[in-house]
Amino acid sequence: MPVSLRELSKRTQGLTPGHRACAGCGFPSIIRLVLGATTDPKVVANATGCMEVVTTIFPYTAWPVNWIHSLFENAAATIAGVESAYRALKRKGKIKTDKEIKFIAFGGDGGTYDIGLQSLSGALERGHNFLYVLYDNQAYMNTGIQRSSATPFGAHTTTSPAGKVIPGKLQKRKEITDIVAAHGIPYAAQASISHWLDLQKKAEKALTTEGPTFLNVLSPCTPGWVIPDDMTVEVAKMAVETRAWPLYEVENGYYRVTYKPKEYVPIEEWFKMQGRFKHLLKRPDLIAEAQRQVNETWERLLWLETRPRKEEEK
Amino acid sequence: MTTEIRKKVLALTGNEAYAYAMKQINPDVVAAYPITPATEIVQIFSKYVADGEVDTEFVPVESEHSAMSACVGASAAGARVMTATASQGLALMHEVLYVASALRLPIVLAEVNRALSAPINIHCDHSDTMGSRDAGWIQIYSENADEAYQSLFIALKIAERANIPAMVTMDGFIVSHGMEPVEILPDEKVRQFLGERKPLYTILDVEHPITIGPLDLTDYFFEHKRGQIEAIKEAKKVIPEVHREYNEFFGKNMPDFFEPYRMEDAEIAVISLGSASGTVREAVDVLREKGEKVGALRMRIFRPFPYEKLREYTGNLKVLSVMDRADSLATIGGPVFNEVRSWLYDLERRPFVMNFVYGLGGRDFFVEDALYIFEKLIKAAKGERPSELIEYVGVRE
Ligand SMILES: Cc1ncc(C[n+]2csc(CCOP(=O)(O)OP(=O)(O)O)c2C)c(N)n1
Ligand SMILES: [Mg+2]
């Protein structure tokens, strides 16, 4: 059962104030919404990246739950180890188990789409009981805004700069949620901080599902996307309205789009809000290409959604 | 009638001996990945799991990087954790080895020495473990299967007392695939000796949340590293202490840092690690017959580096040679040579030290090779010093 915002705000088991994330950073809300989706005890593994860096500058920590950081590309393997230890120790009667512990890994797009993809894939395939939360800010922000395979087509980053000849990133972003779903795990979903109730429902579903589950949450980055501090939620919302960031879930292999905009806002509207796409505004050809990509992904999703359910699964 | 328990001796390969020790340890978690010549360890252990002979949670990871990462997570959760690997596998773990040691997690790794690529090769040399010598792990080099078997118990006890991870090594194929008698210790006594792991903190203690592995900047990092360095110094006390306890408990005579052979009045000696040491001792016997004052010193523990112990053996030496089964690729010979030589530098009386690099990529090392080395040393002791300090033996130049 999703809880109200008022109720949610009372659940303190999330992230404490005083962390050093930028004003307007998207991921503190993700942490609070995901951890607030359950009252069970939690153990978190965090990949190297902005989230880890801004929440745990020694001797301070913003994590009121058990938390471990090991390296950049191994958050999934690390939480797999923790979860395996939990099962072993429980079986051997070495820990008291009045409450189920929830195991959650947080990783950025770099730590997930790119360098940590193998470790995530391995952990999913082995079927550990954990939730992997990808906070997707669409570039390597911690090291100064370099491109990742999550960076959208046309975006300016420091390693896909908009230059005199090359207009930002030439490749489209890859569909990590599909790739994860292709592992045949019970639950994978894409969400956005702008649609907090949708996100909360998905987090709750993921946390109450046995086996590996996955959330890919859009997390705007004010310096990386070149947006004002107070526009984070608006920009995330526009990503959903333009269908640059579709909200959907894949439950036991069945796709469902959880939000369908009433009218399709042109991708240009999302671009206009962000400095990283400024150079594109003079390039209608590139905007058309970006729109084509968006349409194609969306149509594919709608088609996937039509897969008829088996009688017994209705 | 005697009440003495008959000793149980099995003919085992090195890998089988490792796996058998792991069965007796019955770790909470084993996360491992196959690689020649260590593959059998994982295979045999998975069979133990499948047959219910252990109640370990076996994590068949997709890489060694994930193997060590899962070990880190599991050990931080308070579990007793082991893994096994060789060569490229250890190299792939490299980054994570440092995390394990700095987080003070007593993970134990059963290692099988194999040359690092390129060229690709599957046979023994020590370049793999020498490559991780500064990762903050205890390193125990064993000479044969029986010693490797026992060393896993010793390593685990040291690791859990000192809160420092430990790797035990054996020479690839030479020991890992060679069948030898291994005296199996009684299960019950192994269990008694090892007891339970008692972690100081665990991330499964949800009543007392902790943050492990935070960002540590210029204002604290150095102090934390300094603490780790002190802990490794402390381990130098824990190591002989655990060996004493082990030897008493099992009625054994396992040497700790060094195993000296005919060193009492020796004026010439050879330091070696691993399986070549028996060959060196053979040569010592031959030369002792001829009245040469030669001896052999097998270094069993290379990390932490036992320079204090080393100096106890070098007082009478005129010439000392270090045999390295790895090269630094820096024109200065092998790593053991460099450290040994450096730590004798400030002594009043110090031997002339030479380096012989041998056996790379599994090249055989014969008694003749050892005799050749001693011949050079005997000459050097008589004042005929070679023009080069470093020599490569058993190679077509
Ligand atoms: C093996 C390794 N390579 C590179 C780095 C440097 N590095 C640290 S964080 C990071 C980017 C993180 O990007 P992402 O996962 O998207 O997280 P974000 O910082 O954007 O939140 C990089 C490249 C590293 N720590 N480890
Ligand atoms: Mg990122």
Give a quick precis of the structure.
With 314 residues, chain A is of the alpha/beta class.
CATH superfamily of the largest domain in chain B: Thiamin diphosphate (ThDP)-binding fold, Pyr/PP domains
CATH architecture of chain A: 3-Layer(aba) Sandwich
- Order of SSEs of chain B, N→C? EHEHEHEHEHEHEEHEHEEHEEHEHEHE
Mean pLDDT of chain B: 97
Beta-strand percent range of chain B:
15-25%
Q: What is the annotated CATH architecture of the largest domain in chain B?
A: 3-Layer(aba) Sandwich
Write the layout of secondary structure elements.
The complex is a heterodimer of chains A (314) and B (397).
Chain A: H1 5-10, H2 27-35, E1 42-46, H3 50-55, E2 66-69, H4 75-91, E3 102-108, H5 109-114, H6 117-126, E4 131-136, H7 176-181, E5 187-192, H8 196-207, E6 213-218, H9 222-225, H10 232-241, E7 248-251, E8 254-257, H11 267-272, H12 284-305
Parallel strand pairs in A: 1-2, 1-3, 3-4, 4-6, 5-6
Antiparallel strand pairs in A: 5-7, 7-8
Helix pairs in contact in A: 2-8, 4-6
Chain B: E1 8-13, H1 14-25, E2 29-31, H2 39-50, E3 57-59, H3 64-76, E4 81-86, H4 87-102, E5 108-113, H5 127-131, E6 138-141, H6 145-162, E7 166-171, E8 179-184, H7 187-194, E9 211-212, H8 221-250, E10 258-261, E11 268-272, H9 276-289, E12 294-299, E13 301-303, H10 307-314, E14 319-324, H11 335-342, E15 352-358, H12 367-381, E16 390-393
Helix pairs in contact in B: 1-2, 1-6, 3-4, 6-8, 9-12
Bound molecules: thiamine diphosphate (TPP) and magnesium ion (MG).
Describe this structure in words.
The complex is a heterodimer of chains A (314) and B (397). Chain A is an alpha/beta fold and 314 residues long. Chain A has one domain: Rossmann fold, CATH 3.40.50.970. Chain A is built from twelve helices and eight strands. Chain A has an eight-stranded mixed sheet with strand order 2-1-3-4-6-5-7-8, with helices on both faces. In chain A, helix 2 (27-35) packs across helix 8 (196-207). The longest helix of chain A is centred in the C-terminal third of the chain and has 22 residues, at 284-305. Chain B has helices at 14-25, 39-50, 64-76, 87-102, 127-131, 145-162, 187-194, 221-250, 276-289, 307-314, 335-342, 367-381, and strands at residues 8-13, 29-31, 57-59, 81-86, 108-113, 138-141, 166-171, 179-184, 211-212, 258-261, 268-272, 294-299, 301-303, 319-324, 352-358, 390-393. Chain B contains twelve helices and 16 strands. Chain B is 40% helix and 19% strand. With 397 residues, chain B is an alpha/beta fold. The N and C termini of chain B lie far apart (63 Å). In chain B, 53% of the residues are buried. Chain B has a seven-stranded mixed sheet, sandwiched between helices. In chain B, strands 10-12-11-14-15-16 form a six-stranded mixed sheet, sandwiched between helices. In chain B, strands 1-8 form a two-stranded antiparallel sheet. Chain B folds into two domains: 8-250, Thiamin diphosphate (ThDP)-binding fold, Pyr/PP domains (Rossmann fold), CATH 3.40.50; 258-393, Rossmann fold. In chain B, strand 6 (138-141), helix 6 and strand 7 form a beta-alpha-beta unit. At the A-B interface, strand 1, strand 2, helix 4 and helix 6 of A face helix 3, helix 4 and strand 9 of B. Strand 2 (66-69) of chain A pairs parallel with strand 9 (211-212) of chain B. The complex binds thiamine diphosphate (TPP) and magnesium ion (MG). Thiamine diphosphate binds at residues 48-51, 72-73, 108-111, 137, 140-143, 148 of chain A.
